[in-house]
What does this fold into?
Amino acid sequence: MGLRTKLPLILGCVLLGVMIAFAVAPDVFSPMDPLAFDYDALLAPPSAAHWFGTDQFGRDMLSRTISASRIDLQIAIFAMAGPLLIGSLIGLLVGWFGGVADAVFGRLADLVVTFPFLVLVIAIVAVLGPGLINMYIAVALVGWVVYAKLMRGEVRVQRSLDYVAAGRVLGYSTSRVLFRHVLPNAVRSVLVYAVTDMALAILLGSSLGYLGLGAQPPEAEWGVLIADGKNFFDTAPWISLAPGVAIVAAGLGFSLVGDGLASLLDVKR
Amino acid sequence: MNRGTWLLGRLAQIVPTFVLIGLLTFVLARLLPGDPISAVLGDHASDATVARLTAQMGLDQPIPIQFLHFMQGVMSGHLGDSIAYRIPVTQLIGERLPVTLALTAMSMVIAVALAIPLAFIAAIEADRWPDLLIRGVFQVGLSTPIFYVALLLLTVFAAWLGLFPVGGYGDGMMEHLWHLFLPACTLAFSFAAVLMRSLRGAILAVLTAEFVDFARSKGIRRRIILMRHVLRNALIATVSLIGLNVGSLLGGAVITESVFAVPGVGRLMVDSIFARDYPVIQALTLALAVLVSLAFLITDIVQMTLDPRVAR
It folds into this structure.
């Protein structure tokens, strides 16, 4: 593997490294207190004192963005983990046992894709009420299908391989074959997809935050920060600059690492 | 299987799909926690009022009966009244849907016009700098949330340069197009990225296919091969990609319309959540899913016309 194919992966790792560092220790990296009002610098444009300017309360946008990393990283993890766990388990079971359950799963999967992803998530959030927890529930209810399809396909390939037959001949129980042997072999491509999915999770989380359906103020989240400043888009457009760049960098980081891992591990997409 | 039988079979599939869409929408509204009565009346209604509305909305019936009533309503176009607008939901959606459809159609045209030539350049120049540049730009595009693209376009082209309106829909055909241009570009950007990515792969696959080698060995000029064989296959791929992505375009329209204050169903959906207008949310979810399944149907038919192998 040449440097040219590795370069995107390295860039992705650097971007994610910065994001994780910001999320773990925001106080170390923030130049000032993200909540401190500065009445002498309301809506101040970028300057040496405030690299990315300030908002309508004079809060430093760079510091606000850095301290919001924590919530967005949390979104990337939890909005991916729910669908991953539910989908993998269902995919493992229907892929292994087949039959009626598999047929029902096929119908259900076809049905869910006719609903626009965002519309279905928003509809569920509408019933449950806005907020991060409800957003995770909604994403899990809709997003598991993709993981289940992936896992089902992998399990069906593994099922016919020799090591599975060997396990059976040795008298291993179904659950031992399934969870100790098939799962570790089938899970690789699912995990690689999960990394790319974290990029989508960041986009979805910040979009719902922007619409007021995800993270709720005062929870600092990049989409919420941009929504905070949207009334000043013509007079103080810099408010959205730092959080916007952060979303793009995080999304880029996860998708570059996902793509890089896929080609490194030779996982078919 | 001949084309007629295939078409009949495909058309027949739409019936169970519609019933299942209805079932899922119904389940969403009735079985998730969250009580439709207190949502409508608030927490301080008297018991008598609650009982009357429960009976009026048919919520005292067994669940299967409720589902039958719901499906009857869907069939006859009675989906209840909007709580916020106090008019039938179907009328409300009927007024707003054309706006969203126009926006989506416009963004498809822009995206295809952008993606096909760029995908050709990227595939022909594969792994050289034009390819890397095009892919790099779209990679960043795929990582940029729609609402941020919308805000950037709004700030630069509407607020600073004053070339386009800041929001709204205007009156008359020309004004509609003018108002929808920036929102359509917003939606088109991410869709073009998806299209470009898959088309580049599809074109590369065709370029290395045996029939292209054969055509070249017969001495047919490169340009004619590109136009006649590669473009045709690329178009078939484009059609199926458009069909597959109608759902994400409609989802994107929800966000775009909210940023640009376009009075379509997407903005209606977000407004309805804050107004707790459950009948509208339910009907919109249903309508958009029906729309997507119709788009799948049309895609399949168009694809079969372009490529008869589909029916076999």
